[in-house]
Amino acid sequence: MDARDIDGACAAGLDPIRAEAILTTSVYCKTSCGGDRPLPLAANLETMQSKHLNLLINSGAVLVGLIVVGYVAYSAIHTEVEQPCSSRYPAPTRFSLQTGQGKPLSAIELQARAGLRDLGVIDNAAVVRVEGGPSSEALEVKLRKLRGSDDASDTARNGIEFRWSPPGIAGATSACLSYSVWFPDKFAFGGGGVLPGVFGGVPATQKLPAASDQLSITPQWDYEGKPVLAATVGGGDVRRMLGSETPLPTERWIPVQQEVILNAPGQANGVARLWIDGTLIVDDQGLQLRKDAKAVLAGVLVAAGYRRAPPEPGMLRFSPFEIAWR
């Protein structure tokens, strides 16, 4: 510091010690009248900090705005996809293909588990051991006309059909069915066919031995092999929901998951979803599956076969069926 600066300050009436302190801790600024007035360094730092704080606040506001705009744009392009239903339901109940000793079920044992209302189980179904599949056993279904049938029409029955109601499912209003299916190479999809699905209705009673308001929701394939989900409600009305333009693959296991949520009576808010290979291909949330609140889900409709007479002998394989409900 120059001694002349201190002398000048002293000439202004300040003692030397105070003049040196001010000159050491001050910076100069120009006043509107053209003179120089010392500005304390602390005040200058406070001004700079305030500017930096304002800059940070403004930058943060811009960043938040960009994030909001980006999220809105992303949401407009991408919609949330419902994950496979098995991740949202309790532990499932399995239709085991093994005996208590771990051996494959025989045709007689399989029919015993299928119940009284079976079609073609003895003739067309067998439990076989497989390698590289979801389980060590598979249900193998021959897609051929039932033995001894004189029906030569285009709608001759083939394959198998039975209903499985696991213990505890009574009263269920939503369910998740899981299994895998295997189509052989060069499978003839013919005029379309049916795969296992979910069924329900008003439970039979002594006063009402024939259940009413029956319903079934089953995956199917069309004549090109494209997957379809079909809902059949009381009265026989059928609603088919096309799932994909891509035919079902052959010669490998295909994971299938199906979710059914019954509507509130009088409302069209029932839900039917279908996942193939982990991809959601059907998501219909405007169904009226029942009119009566007593109509509930009852189990698995194990149906496998062509909708018409088989174009040629064929075969399908299924992993054990698993169903969970609420």
What this model shows, in words?
Helix 1 (3-11) packs across helix 2. Helices cover 21% and strands 33% of the residues. A hairpin with a 5-residue loop joins strand 10 and strand 11. The model is unreliable at 21-35, 71-78 and 208-212 (pLDDT under 50). It folds into 2 domains: 1-79; 85-325, Jelly Rolls, CATH 2.60.120.200. The radius of gyration is 38 Å and the shape is elongated. The N and C termini lie far apart (87 Å). Strands 3, 4, 5, 7, 13, 14, 15, 17 and 18 form a 9-stranded antiparallel beta sheet that branches. Strands 6, 8, 9, 10, 11, 12 and 16 form a 7-stranded antiparallel beta sheet that branches. With 326 residues, it is an alpha+beta fold. It has helices spanning 3-11, 16-24, 41-77, 107-114, 121-124; strands at 26-30, 36-40, 93-94, 125-129, 137-143, 160-164, 174-182, 193-194, 197-201, 215-221, 227-232, 238-242, 253-261, 270-276, 279-287, 296-306, 314-318, 322-325. It contains 5 helices and 18 strands.
Give the low-confidence spans.
21-35, 71-78, 208-212
CATH topological fold name of the largest domain: Jelly Rolls
Number of strands: 18
- CATH class descriptor of the largest domain: Mainly Beta
Q: What shape does the CA trace take? A: elongated
Oligomeric grouping of the chains: single chain
